[in-house]
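To whoever is covering the structure queue this week,

Two jobs came back overnight. Logging them here so there's a record in the thread.

Job A:
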Amino acid sequence: MSTVTTDGPAPATPAPGRQGPDRRLGVAMAIAGVAAWLALVLVARAWALAIVREQGFEALRLGAAPLVGRGDFLLGPWSVVGLAAAVAAVALAPRLRGLPWRGLVLAVLVGALVWPVALNLVRGPDALTAPLTRAGDEYLPDVGEVDAAGGPRDFLLDFPENLDDYNVHVRSHPPGFLLLLWSLDGIGLGGAGWAAALCILGGALAAPAVLVATREVAGERWARRAAPFLAVSPAALWVATSADAFFAGLAAVAVTMLILAAGRTGRRADALAAGAGLLLGAAALLSYGLVLSWAVPLPVLVHRRRLRPLVLAGLVAAGVVGLAGLAGLDYLAAFEATRREVAESVQRTRPYVFSLVSNAAALAIACGPAVVVGLVALRDHRLWRVVGGALAAVALAALIGLSKGEVERIWLPFTVWLLAAGAVAVQRWGPSSLRWWLGAQVAVALAVQTIFRTGW
C-alpha cells in the first residue's frame, strides 16, 4: 500500500514586509468586497419586492426574499443564547491555530453542532423541531403512509403513481429519507426530536469532512485557516433543522472519502472508493440534486489522474440504486413524476433571470461575506480544487433552472464546500483579521434569524 503524490508542498510564506499592498488599501478592498456582497443581497430583495407588488405574493412565495420565510422581528430572552454562542466563537477562534490536528477536527465538529442549535434557539426551543412537522410540507407527517401502503415494498412499487398524495418534500425527493424516518420510528426513535437530532448531526459532520478534504488537497495551513468558517457560518440557519442538512453531511463524507481514495493506492484506496460509492448511491435515494455531488471531487480526480476510484465508486453507487430498484422503486419513473410536480409548482411562476440573481444572493447569505470575499480573492490553485467543483455544481443547477429559489437549504451540500474559501480572507488580510471576518459571519446569521422567520 502506498500513497499517491499529492498536490505539492505549500508555497513558502513571504516575508512579513512583503505581504501584499499597504494596510489601508487592504482595508479598502475588504470594505469594497463586503459592500458588493451587500449590494447583491439588496438588489435581489428589491427586485423580489417589485415582482410581488406587480404580481402578488404567489408569484414568488419568498416572504424573506431572497430567502424563503417571512418578516417576523424577534428579540427576546432566547436571543441571549445565540449572542453568547457568537461571542464565544469569535473569541475562541484564534485558539484553534494551536490545537493538534485531531483536536482541531473535533473542535470543528463540536462548533458545527453547537452553533446551529444556539442560533436556532434564538426563536425558542420549538424552532428546532417545528420545521420538521409542518403539515403539507414535511416528511414526518407522511411517515405513516409507508404502513398504510402495506409496507416498504408496496410503498416503493406505488411511489411514482401515488406521488400526488404526499407532502411537498416527499413529492420533491426520492423516498429514501422518508423510509429512513420510518425505520427509526420502527425502533422507537420516531418523532420530531429524533429527526431533528438526525438532521443536526448529519449537517455537523459536513464540517470536519470538508476540513479533512481541504488538508488532503490544499495542505494543513489552508485547512487550519478554513476551520473557523467551517464550524461557524450563516448556513447553520438551515442545518437546524432541515433534511438537506443530513443530505449535506452524507454527501460531504462520501466526497471526502473519494478525494482520500485519489491520494492513495492499493486496497485502502479501493475501500475508500467503495465506501464513497455506497454513500453516494444512498445520497441519490435521498435527493435527485445530489447527483451533482459527483462534480465536487472531479477537479482533484482529474488533477491527480485517478480514474480507478471514480469508476469503482460509480459501480458501487449504481449497485445501491439497482438494489432499490429490486426492492420496488422505479427510480426514473419517480424522477419523472417529481419533475412534473416541480414544473407545476411555484417554480413555474418564478422568473428565470430573477432566479439567477436571487439564487446567487441566497447562496451569498448562506456563505456569509467572508466566504464570498474569499472566493473572489482566491488565487491558490490547490484550494480552487477544493471549492471549484461545488461552485461548478451550483452554477450548473442555476443555469438549467433545477432550483429557482429555496437554494439556501437545497444547495447546502455544495455550500459546505464553499465555506473553505473563508481561509482566503484570513490569508489575504492576516491572522489578526480572523475575528473581524468571523464576526461578520455570525452577525449575518444573527441578523437573519432575528429579523426573519425562515422557512426551515
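Job B:
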Amino acid sequence: MKRICALILSLAMALTLAACGGNNGGTSAPPAASPDADQSAPSGESTTLRLAWTVAYQDDHPYTVAAESFKQYVEENTDGRVKVELYAGGQLGGDVEMMEMLQMGTLDVAVTSTPTIANFTDVLVGCDMPYIWHNDLQAMYSVLTEGDIGRRLLDRMQEEVGIVGLSFLYQPFRHFYTNKPIETLDDMAGLKLRCMQTPVHMAIFEALGCKPVSLTYNDIYSAMQQNTIDGFESDAMGGTASKFYEVADYLTISGHFNNTMVLLMSDPSYSAMSAEDQAVCMAAAAEAAAASLKTSIEANDFHIQNMQDNGMTLCTPDMEPFYAAVQPLIDQYCQEIPEAKLLVDAAQEAVG
C-alpha cells in the first residue's frame, strides 16, 4: 500500500512539473493581453507598450522613423519605466486587424493610414481628398500638427471608434508611373491605372479620365511587364524599393494624395496610464510627427532623383486642370461629411 501511495505521489508531482514547464521550445511574437485584463499598474512600476505597423522595417522609412522616435522619447522621459517594443512588417497582423486589436485593448499602439481608418469611420476621409495640399508636406503639417484642426479630427475619431489618436504622421505624396508621358490632363484619358482598392481612390482616377484597375500592390511589377495595366501610382520610396523604374518609363509629379499616416493608441492602454505618462505619450507623438516630416522630405527628393538616375523621365504638367477635374468630387464629400469640409477649407487656406 505504501508503495502504491508513493507511486501515486510521484506521478502527481511529475504531472505538476510538466504542466508548469511552459513552451520553451521556440520563439514567437509576444502574446496579446486579454481585453478583460486590468492593465493599470501602481505608480513607479514598469509597463511595456507594443507598437506595430505593417511596412517592413527600413531605416529611412517614415513609419520606422516615427516609431523609433516615439520609443526613444517615451523611454527617456519615463526613465525607462515605460518600455516600447516595436513590431514591423505586419508581425501582429494587417491594418484592419490592428485597428480591431486597438479597439479590444489587445494591442497598445499602431501606425496605420486614413484609408484603413475609413473602414471604421468617415471623419478622416478629408485626408484622402485629392490635391488639397498641392504636393506641399509643410502645408499639411501646419494644419494637422501645428494647428488645432488635426487634434479636433483625432478627437472626433476617438468618439466614433474608441481609439486614441496620438498624432498625424507624414510620408511622401504619391505620383504616377506610366509607360507614356503625361504632359496634360488629356494624357490621362483611358489609361488603365492601378489604384488602391477603396471607393474614394477609384472615384478620383475616374474623375481624371482613367480606368481604375483593382490589383494588389505586389502584382504591379508583373502587370506592367505584361502590359495588363498602363500605369499605377506610388510614392518615390515605393518606386525604389520595388524597382519600378525597371517597368515604367515616366514618373509624373502629381502629388494627388498622401495616404496620411496616424499614430493610434488603445484606449484601455492610454486610460491605464497616469496623467503624467499620458502627457509623455502625446509629446512623444508630436516628436514622431516632426521626425516623419523631416525624413519624408529628404527621402522624397532622394528617391525621385534615384528614379531619374535609373532612366526614368520626369514629367511636370500644369496641375491646374487636374485640380479642376476632381473639384466636384471634393465638393460632394464636403457636402456629405462635415469633418471633410473642415479639413479641406483649412488646407485651401494653408496652400493659398
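Note for Job B: The chain has two domains: 47-172+258-302, 175-257+305-351.

Please reply-all if you pick these up so we don't duplicate work.
Q.
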